[in-house]
Amino acid sequence: MRTFVLIPAVALCLGFTGTAAAQRPGLIVLNKSEATASILDLADGRTVATMPVGDGPHEVAVSPDGRWAMAANYGGTTPGHSLTLLDLRTRKVVRTIELGEFQRPHGMAWLPDGKRVVVTSELAQAVIVVAAETGTIEKTIRTNVGGTHLLVLAPDGSRVWTSNINSGTNSLIDLERGVVVKTVANGKGPEAIDLSPDGKELWTADRPLNRLTVLDAHTLDSLAAWPTGLFPNRLHFTPDGKWVLQSNAQSGTVSVYDAKARTLAGTIAFAYDETIAKSTMLNQFGRSATPLGILIAPDGKRAWVALAAHDRLAEVDIASRRVLRMLTAGREPDGMAYLPNVSP
């Protein structure tokens, strides 16, 4: 069993599924330079809570019942090696789960049971399954390829697809059997990754090549490919499978694709504002607002884009591809997750 830090005043009961009287949707946002997680109320855009997490947090996932959030502490110069479990009702840290050899945790998703998370470890070249309540690593699956970075989970929790940025590959893993089914070469450094809602296609974007590739989700055969903007970082399908949004960190844009036609439907540009740009970590992108993380609302009408250089989130209307408003986040926001209710 891995060691963890427990806050005694907070009782963890992963089976609890209480419902608040009034639903107020919000967001949880990871702020990489602050090592914090912010909760934003979408009704007025204000930050209602800020909680500490580990160094260099990149990805966050919310449990199926909306009660818990888990942050992956990727680290900075020194590789991170922990996860932080947050209670979204009390807005407190429940525990820090130490991962030992499984350094640089990054991609993450909750399994359907709401009790375990699947996490990538870049340096260990592995995907692990971690029990949230005990901090136990229940399963380890070695990909044996460099830079196992992001993942996407099948809705039933049976399979995982990964992007392996240091080896130029993508992998398909049978999570139930604990084996890698297939790994295929796909460019130089695929990172962004998502599964189509019908489960048939895997879309992934390559950072060094500035290229998006569509793979058959079952065979990993290449079906199509085309150029993107500079430094494609994240991509996500809308819930109906109609659109794909993909961020270009260096170009300062988000590309919107017609998923069925596999064509570019439009581009959302975010102007660089030197009066508010504060980033010191992202100078490689020059004068760019640096769009990184993308989150799409459950109804598929809006999306939020983390503008890391501006410490802002852009709320976007997907149909019109217009920016509706800017929300203030912490320093260098990136990973986000939707919260059905931010009321205590």
In terms of topology, how is this protein built?
Elements: E1 4-6, E2 26-31, E3 36-41, E4 47-52, E5 57-62, E6 68-75, E7 79-87, E8 92-98, E9 105-110, E10 116-121, E11 126-131, E12 137-142, E13 148-153, E14 159-164, E15 169-174, E16 179-185, E17 190-195, E18 201-206, E19 211-216, E20 222-227, E21 232-237, E22 243-248, E23 253-258, E24 263-269, E25 291-296, E26 302-307, E27 312-317, E28 322-328, E29 333-339
Antiparallel strand pairs: 1-8, 2-3, 2-29, 3-4, 5-6, 6-7, 7-8, 9-10, 10-11, 11-12, 13-14, 14-15, 15-16, 17-18, 18-19, 19-20, 21-22, 22-23, 23-24, 25-26, 26-27, 27-28
Q: Which geometry do the CA atoms define?
A: globular
Order of helices and strands: EEEEEEEEEEEEEEEEEEEEEEEEEEEEE
Q: Calculate the mean pLDDT score and round it.
A: 93
Strand order of the largest sheet: 1-8-7-6-5
Strand residue percentage = over 45%
Structural class by sheet pairing and helices: mainly beta
Biggest sheet architecture: 5 strands, antiparallel
Number of helices: 0
Which stretches are low in confidence, meaning pLDDT under 50 for 5 or more residues running?
Answer: 1-12, 15-20
Q: Helix proportion of residues, in percent? A: under 10%
Q: What is the terminal-to-terminal distance? A: 32 Å
**What's the gyration radius in Å?**
19 Å
Number of E strands: 29
Structural write-up:
This protein has 344 residues and is mainly beta. 0% of the residues lie in helices and 53% in strands. It contains no helices and 29 strands. The strands form seven sheets. A five-stranded antiparallel β-sheet has the order 1-8-7-6-5, with no helix packed on it. A four-stranded antiparallel β-sheet has the order 4-3-2-29, with no helix packed on it. The chain has a four-stranded antiparallel β-sheet with strand order 9-10-11-12, with no helix packed on it. The protein starts with a strand and ends in a 5-residue tail after the last strand. The model is unreliable at 1-12 and 15-20 (pLDDT under 50).
